[in-house]
C-alpha cells in the first residue's frame, strides 16, 4: 500500500539508478587500476581472495539431496542463504530473508507464527539438519545457522514428504570446526533493540580429533508502535552446543543441542473493512497505532529444544552411511486480545470491530530416527549414484492443544489509541468504558473450551538414483513410501468434558514418485563454465481429515503434481550462478463445503472437490559479478487460483503477487584507503496480491481486495579493516525501508482477522570482533 505511488516510485528509481551507477563506477575503477602495474595486479589478486570469502554465493554448493549434486546439477529450483547474507541485510532468521528468494513471501506473524507463503501455498513446518520440526516456534535464529536451503516445489525425494506443497526450508546448524574461531558482537537499533551474541569453535584436544562449538545470542526489542504510555518489551534467547569426535579418518560422531526461547507480545494486527456497498477493503490506518490488545494481557512464551546425535561413516568403496537420532520438544503459552471483524460488519459502526480474549497452550515431544546410505555404483561401464533412507518418527507423548473460552471484551475502533479514547494509562472501548485486565488465573477465569491430544507415528522409506546416461545427460528417479498412524483424542469440547473421550484413529499409506533429468548444453563457453537444462516431475501429498456428507470422519490426503523445466548456469569460475524455472502444478482433493454455505475448507459437511492451480516463472542470479561486487537478484511471476465447484468465480491465494522481484547488491573496496568498506542496498518490488482466500467469501462480500503493491528500499554497510590494530573488528549498519513505505499482508485468509503491517522502518548498528 503506497503513500504516494508515483512520487515514491520516482524516488526509488532515482535511488536505484544512482546506487547502480555508483557501484558500477567503483567496480570499473577497481578493475582499471588493477591493470596499471604488475605490483598492483599482484596486490589485487590477494584482495580478490578476501572478496570471495565475503561473497553471497556459498562455496559449498551441494544440496541436502544425499546425492553428490551441485546446485547447477540439481533438477529443481533451490536457493541457498548463508549466514553472511542474513547478516548483510540485517535478517534475524530465514523468515526475514524471503526477499532473497523468488516466489517466497512473508505473511505476518499472527498467533506467534512466522508465516511464509511459497508458490502460493502457506508453509509452516521447517526442517533442521533435514529433520522435520512441527512446532509453533518455527524461525530458527540466523546466528545459529551455517546456511538455509529453500527448495521450491514438492521436495518428494529430497527431504521426504513435504510439509507444504510450496517447498521446504531446511536450516543447517553450525557445526564444530577443526580450526579455532571466535566471534563476539553487540547490536543496537530502533524500537529499543539490543542484541549480544558469541560464537566460539575449535579443537578440544591436542591432535584435533575432538572439536567443540558454543553459540549463544540474547535479543530484546520493542514493537514498531508509538502509543503513549505503553511499552512492548520482547525477549528472545538462543544457545547451541555441539561436540564432534573423529573416531577414525572415516568415522565421525557428533552431538548437537539447540535451545530457543522467547517471551514476546504476539502483536496480531487487525481486520479488513466492510464498505457500505458490502465489499471488503483495506483500512486507512496508521501502522504505528495498529494494535488491538494491551501489553498487560498480550503475551506469548515459547521454548523449543532440539538434540541431534549423528554418526557418519565412509566405507572403503566410498559409500557413506549416516545415522541420526533426534529428540525435539516444544511448549507455547499464548494469551492476547482477538480482534474480530471486518470493521463495519455485523451491524457495527463503519470503523468498529469486536474484541475477544484468546488463550492457547501447545506442547509436544517427538523422537526421530533417520538412517541413510549413499554412494557411487558402476553399471554398463558408467558411474552412477544412489541414496536410500529410512526415517521413523514417534510422538513420545501425545501433542497437546488447549484452548480457553473466548470471552467478549467490548467494541473497538480504528482509533483505538487515539487522543479522545486514550487516557494515557489504558485503552478505552468505543463506548467509553475502560479496559479491565483479567485478574488471577486465566484458565480458572475463562474456563477450558477444548483439549485435543494427538499421537502420531510415521515411517518413510525413500530411494533415489542418478543415472549418467551419457557424459552430458543425467536422469534422476525417486520413490517415497509413507506410512502413518495417528490417534486424535478430545477429552473436552465446547466447554464440557467428553465422557468417554472422543477418539479418532487414522491410518494411511501413500507412495509418490519423482523424475528429473538434466542435460549439459554448455561446457566452458565464454564466461559460462557450465549450462544445463532440466526437467522435473514431482508428486506430493498432505494428510488431511475431514467430515463427509454422511457425517463420518474420513482421512484422504490432498494430492499434488508439479512439472518444472529450467536452465541453470555457473559463470566466472563458479562465482556466479543463474537459474530460470517455469513450473505448473495442480493440487486436488481440497475439502470444500458440500453446500453453498460455509467457507473454503471450513467446518461442517465437506467434499473433496476443490483444487488449486498455478503457473509460474522464476529468475535468479547470485554471485560476485566483478571483484568485490556481489549481486543477488530475482524476479517471479505467479498466476494461481483456488477453485470451488460451488462457485462460479475463483480466488487467488493470499499474499501471492502476480509479479514480484528484488535485488540486493553490495560493493566491497578491495584496495586503497577504503579497503574493507562494503556498501549496498536492497530494492524489493511487489505487485498487488489478495487478502482473502476462499471462493465462498466472493459470494458473501463480492470482489475481494487485491492491493498491497509496494516498493521498499533498504541500505546496508559494513567496515572490516584488513590491517592495523582494528583488523579483527567489523562494523555493520542497516537501514530498513528508508522511505517508510506502508506494507500490509494477509496473515490469515479469513476476512474477520486477517492483516498486519510488516517491514516498518528501522535502523541498526552492530560491532563484531572475530578471530
Summed up, the helix count is 6
**CATH superfamily membership:** TonB-dependent receptor, beta-barrel domain
CATH topology: Maltoporin, Chain A
Major pleated sheet = 22 strands, antiparallel, barrel
What is the class in the CATH system? Answer: Mainly Beta
Strand content: over 45%
Q: Please, how many domains?
A: 1
| Helix content class | under 10%
- What's the overall geometry? globular
Task: Give the total of beta strands.
Answer: 39
CATH architecture: Beta Barrel
Question: Whole-number radius of gyration?
Answer: 27 Å
How would you explain this protein's 3D organization?
By secondary structure, the protein is mainly beta. It has a single domain, classed as Beta Barrel (Maltoporin, Chain A). Helix content is 9%, strand content 54%. It contains six helices and 39 strands. It has a 22-stranded antiparallel barrel. Strands 1-7-8-5-6 form a five-stranded mixed sheet. A three-stranded antiparallel sheet has the order 2-3-4, with no helix packed on it. The N terminus is likely disordered.
Amino acid at each position: 500500500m503506497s503513500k504516494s505511488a508515483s512520487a515514491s516510485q520516482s524516488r526509488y528509481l532515482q535511488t536505484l539508478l544512482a546506487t547502480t551507477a555508483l557501484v558500477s563506477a567503483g567496480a570499473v575503477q577497481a578493475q582499471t587500476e588493477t591493470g596499471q602495474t604488475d605490483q598492483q595486479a599482484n596486490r589485487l589478486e590477494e584482495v580478490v581472495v578476501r572478496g570471495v570469502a565475503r561473497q553471497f554465493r556459498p562455496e559449498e554448493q551441494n544440496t541436502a539431496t544425499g546425492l553428490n549434486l551441485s546446485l547447477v546439477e540439481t533438477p529443481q529450483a533451490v536457493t541457498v542463504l548463508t549466514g553472511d547474507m542474513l547478516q548483510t541485510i540485517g535478517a534475524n532468521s530465514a523468515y526475514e530473508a524471503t526477499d532473497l528468494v523468488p516466489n517466497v513471501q512473508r505473511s505476518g506473524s499472527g498467533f506467534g507464527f512466522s508465516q511464509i507463503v511459497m508458490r502460493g501455498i502457506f508453509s509452516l513446518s521447517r526442517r533442521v539438519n533435514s529433520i522435520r520440526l512441527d512446532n509453533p516456534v518455527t524461525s530458527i535464529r540466523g546466528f545459529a545457522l551455517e546456511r538455509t536451503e529453500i527448495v521450491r516445489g514438492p521436495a518428494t525425494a529430497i527431504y521426504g514428504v513435504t510439509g507444504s506443497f510450496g517447498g521446504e526450508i531446511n536450516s543447517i546448524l553450525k557445526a564444530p570446526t577443526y580450526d579455532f574461531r571466535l566471534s563476539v558482537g553487540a547490536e543496537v537499533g530502533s524500537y529499543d533493540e539490543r542484541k549480544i551474541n558469541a560464537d566460539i569453535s575449535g579443537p578440544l584436544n591436542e591432535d584435533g580429533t575432538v572439536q567443540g562449538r558454543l553459540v549463544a545470542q540474547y535479543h530484546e526489542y520493542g514493537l514498531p508502535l508509538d502509543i503513549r504510555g505503553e511499552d512492548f518489551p520482547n525477549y528472545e534467547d538462543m544457545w547451541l552446543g555441539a561436540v564432534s569426535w573423529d573416531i577414525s579418518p572415516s568415522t565421525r560422531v557428533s552431538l548437537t543441542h539447540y535451545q530457543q526461547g522467547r517471551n514476546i507480545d504476539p502483536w496480531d494486527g487487525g481486520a479488513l473493512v466492510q464498505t457500505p456497498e458490502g465489499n471488503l477493503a483495506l483500512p486507512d490506518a496508521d501502522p504505528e497505532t495498529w494494535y488491538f490488545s494491551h501489553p498487560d494481557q498480550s503475551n506469548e512464551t515459547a521454548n523449543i529444544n532440539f538434540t541431534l546425535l549423528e554418526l557418519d561413516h565412509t566405507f572403503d568403496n566410498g559409500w557413506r552411511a549416516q545415522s541420526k537420532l533426534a529428540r525435539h520438544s516444544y511448549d507455547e503459552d499464548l494469551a492476547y486480545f482477538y480482534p474480530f471483524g471486518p470493521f463495519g460488519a455485523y451491524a457495527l459502526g463503519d470503523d468498529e470491530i469486536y474484541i475477544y480474549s484468546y488463550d492457547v497452550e501447545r506442547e509436544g515431544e517427538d523422537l526421530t530416527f533417520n538412517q541413510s546410505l549413499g554412494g557411487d555404483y558402476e553399471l554398463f561401464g558408467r558411474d552412477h549414484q544412489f541414496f536410500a533412507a529410512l526415517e521413523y518418527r514417534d510422538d513420545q507423548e501425545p501433542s497437546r492443544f488447549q484452548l480457553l473460552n473466548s470471552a467478549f471484551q467490548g467494541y473497538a475502533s480504528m482509533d483505538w489509541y487515539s487522543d479522545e479514547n486514550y487516557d494515557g494509562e489504558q485503552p478505552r472501548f468505543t463506548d467509553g468504558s475502560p479496559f479491565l485486565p483479567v485478574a488471577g488465573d486465566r484458565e480458572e477465569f475463562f474456563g477450558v473450551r477444548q483439549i485435543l491430544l494427538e499421537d502420531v507415528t510415521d515411517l518413510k522409506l525413500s530411494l533415489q538414483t542418478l543415472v549418467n546416461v551419457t557424459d552430458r545427460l543425467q536422469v534422476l528417479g525417486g520413490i517415497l513410501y509413507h506410512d502413518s498412524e495417528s490417534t486424535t483424542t478430545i477429552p473436552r469440547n465446547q466447554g464440557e468434558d467428553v465422557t468417554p473421550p472422543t477418539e479418532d484413529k487414522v491410518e494411511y499409506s501413500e507412495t509418490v514418485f519423482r523424475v528429473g533429468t538434466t542435460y549439459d548444453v554448455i561446457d566452458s563457453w565464454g564466461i559460462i563454465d557450465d549450462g544445463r537444462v532440466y526437467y522435473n516431475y514431482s508428486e506430493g501429498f498432505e494428510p488431511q481429515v475431514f467430515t463427509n456428507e454422511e457425517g463420518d470422519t474420513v482421512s484422504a490426503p490432498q494430492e499434488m503434481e508439479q512439472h518444472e523445466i529450467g536452465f541453470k548456469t555457473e559463470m566466472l569460475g563458479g562465482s556466479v550462478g543463474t537459474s530460470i524455472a517455469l513450473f505448473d502444478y495442480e493440487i486436488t482433493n481440497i475439502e470444500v463445503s458440500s453446500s453453498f454455505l460455509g467457507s473454503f475448507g471450513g467446518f461442517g459437511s465437506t467434499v473433496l472437490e476443490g483444487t488449486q492451480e498455478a503457473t509460474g516463472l522464476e529468475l535468479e542470479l547470485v554471485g560476485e559479478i566483478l571483484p568485490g561486487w556481489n549481486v543477488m537478484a530475482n524476479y517471479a511471476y505467479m498466476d494461481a487460483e483456488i477453485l470451488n465447484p460451488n462457485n462460479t468465480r475463483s480466488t487467488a491465494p493470499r499474499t501471492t503477487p502476480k509479479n514480484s522481484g528484488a535485488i540486493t547488491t553490495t560493493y566491497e573496496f578491495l584496495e586503497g584507503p577504503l579497503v574493507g568498506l562494503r556498501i549496498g542496498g536492497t530494492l524489493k518490488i511487489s505487485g498487488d496480491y489478495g487478502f482473502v482466500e476462499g471462493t465462498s467469501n466472493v459470494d458473501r462480500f463480492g470482489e475481494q481486495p487485491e492491493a498491497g503493491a509496494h516498493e521498499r528500499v533498504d541500505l546496508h554497510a559494513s567496515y572490516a579493516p584488513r590491517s592495523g590494530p582494528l583488523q579483527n573488528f567489523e562494523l555493520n549498519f542497516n537501514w530498513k525501508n528508508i522511505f517508510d513505505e506502508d506494507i500490509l499482508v494477509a496473515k490469515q485468509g479469513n476476512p474477520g482477522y486477517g492483516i498486519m503491517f510488516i517491514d516498518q522502518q528501522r535502523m541498526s548498528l552492530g560491532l563484531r570482533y572475530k578471530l
